[in-house]
């Protein structure tokens, strides 16, 4: 490994790599992925094993602290998390202030950033390890409450407070789908599906939002501001926003009569800006291992919940046609994780505009782990260079002479 503290500015040459297609910005021991072979591992553990055997909160612990927890460690982690799930009562004023139809991602990024106002100790650039850990626990614990309350606000329903008796995922589902006056049973099938989805999204090395979290954090910004920046980066339809776009696209195809060939032709037409949402990936050029797991999970969940979703049939047909088409084969375009996640979220009862927020909830442990690693490594401030292409020398011209 390179000793980062010994690196000095190398002036003279600048490498131009627009979109960072081949440029490594850091060294990381968190997530390994091989885009050619379709391998994804968190801290060395294959995603397939974690999705089958672990829980989201155990995976969060693994990503943030580097090891699978012992029974005692996970008990303490759950205890700490459950004691920080409440948000400050004054935060309700923010929820009240948003128009009820405003996009949940805009609300989420503002609300997470506002946590720094309630926990100003996070502003100290040189927090002790204990203070830093408390900030980590707080953001992880409060995010499900914030996400659920954004949803309740969109419905105009009263907020449901977190309850210590529930585990992380059940607590989230209870705050989202629970009622104040009646006891709502949270279906274990739903809890298990939610755990799987969150695990699959928990980290993905230096993607757009994670790199954003690291670069914002590299200026010694607090964790809430850094995570909020990651949420903004995730919002875009080319990144996390794709899961919402996929369902909207499938619905459009359904309303249009379900002619998948027509839509595949549109996606291939270079004069048409339409892209097949949920297809293609910057790194996976063979298959996305998360998509494989999610496709199976999708079939299982719809069957267990007894849901017959025509949109799923359209998705399968699209995949089948695209995978045989030379355009997609030559460009190595395969379904990514977002192609099927939206269908599961829909089956669980989430409205479309909440999908990207759920992605953010899943990605949070990854952002935290990467932010922490960047701090522990004492990485220098992120500051890309450029190749200047503008005018060279010009003299100022007074306005009446232009
Ligand atoms: N539909 C049709 N054509 C596509 C698609 C698509 N979904 N994706 C890429 N292509 C084509 C491009 O037009 C380009 O064709 P060309 O070589 O003839 O110009 C070629 O494939 C390469 O595409 P790039 O955009 O250069 O690939 P890049 O690695 O920059 O982009 C990305 C990857 C953004 C994911 C892209 O495939 C895309 O826009 N997909 C749809 C959006 C999506 O699903 N995003 C989610 C990504 S996964 C995640 O964030 C969790």
Main beta sheet strand tally, sense and closure? 3 strands, antiparallel
Number of helices: 17
The parts where pLDDT drops under 50 for at least 5 residues are none
Report the helical percentage. 40-55%
Portion in beta strands? under 5%
Question: What's the short version?
Answer:
The protein is mainly α and 402 residues long. Helix content is 54%, strand content 2%.
Q: Any overview of this molecule?
A:
The protein has helices spanning 47-53, 56-65, 71-82, 91-97, 104-118, 129-155, 168-177, 188-201, 208-217, 223-235, 242-255, 260-268, 289-304, 310-324, 326-330, 338-348, 355-376, and strands at residues 31-34, 39-42, 45-46. It has 402 residues and is an all-alpha fold. Strands 1-2-3 form a three-stranded antiparallel β-sheet. Helix 8 packs antiparallel against helix 13 (289-304). The longest helix has 27 residues, at 129-155. The structure holds acetyl coenzyme *A. Acetyl coenzyme *A binds at residues 238-240, 242, 267, 275-282, 331, 333, 336-338. The site of acetyl coenzyme *A (ACO) has 18 residues, from loops.
Name a few traits of the molecule.
mainly alpha, binds acetyl coenzyme *A, 402 residues, 3-stranded antiparallel β-sheet, 17 helices
């Amino acid at each position: 490994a390179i000793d980062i503290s010994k690196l000095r500015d190398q002036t003279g040459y600048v490498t131009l790599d627009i979109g960072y297609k081949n440029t490594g910005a850091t060294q990381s021991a968190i997530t390994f992925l091989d885009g050619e072979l379709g391998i994804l591992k968190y801290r060395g553990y294959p995603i397939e094993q974690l999705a089958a055997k672990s829980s989201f909160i155990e995976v969060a612990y693994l990503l943030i602290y580097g090891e699978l927890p012992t029974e005692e460690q996970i008990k303490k982690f759950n205890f700490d998390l459950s004691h920080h799930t409440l948000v400050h009562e004054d935060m309700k004023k923010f929820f009240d202030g948003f128009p009820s139809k405003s996009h949940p991602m805009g609300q989420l990024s503002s609300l997470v950033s506002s946590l720094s106002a309630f926990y100003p100790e996070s502003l100290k650039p040189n927090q002790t390890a204990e203070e830093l850990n408390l900030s980590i626990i707080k953001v992880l614990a409060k995010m499900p409450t914030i996400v659920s309350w954004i949803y309740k606000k969109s419905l105009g329903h009263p907020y449901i407070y977190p309850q210590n008796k529930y585990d992380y995922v059940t607590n989230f589902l209870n705050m989202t789908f629970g009622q104040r006056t009646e006891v709502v049973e949270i279906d274990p099938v739903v809890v298990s599906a939610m755990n799987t989805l969150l695990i699959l999204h928990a980290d993905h090395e230096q993607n757009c939002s994670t790199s954003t979290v690291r670069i914002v954090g590299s200026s010694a910004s607090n964790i809430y501001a850094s995570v909020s920046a990651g949420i903004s980066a995730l919002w875009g339809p080319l990144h996390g926003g794709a899961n919402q776009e996929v369902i909207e696209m499938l619905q459009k195809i359904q309303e249009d009569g379900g002619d998948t060939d027509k839509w595949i032709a549109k996606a291939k037409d270079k004069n048409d800006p339409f892209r097949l949402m949920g297809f293609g990936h910057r790194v996976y050029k063979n298959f996305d291992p998360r998509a494989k797991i999610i496709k199976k999970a999708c079939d299982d969940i719809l069957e267990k919940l007894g849901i017959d979703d025509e949109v799923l049939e359209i998705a399968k047909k699209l995949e089948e046609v695209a995978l045989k088409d030379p355009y997609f084969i030559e460009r190595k375009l395969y379904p990514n994780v977002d192609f099927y996640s939206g269908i599961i979220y829909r089956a669980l009862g989430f409205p479309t505009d909440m999908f990207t927020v759920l992605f953010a909830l899943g990605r949070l442990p990854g952002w935290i782990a990467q932010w922490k690693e960047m701090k522990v490594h004492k990485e220098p401030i992120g500051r890309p260079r450029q190749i200047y292409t503008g005018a060279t020398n010009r003299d100022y011209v007074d306005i009446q002479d232009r």
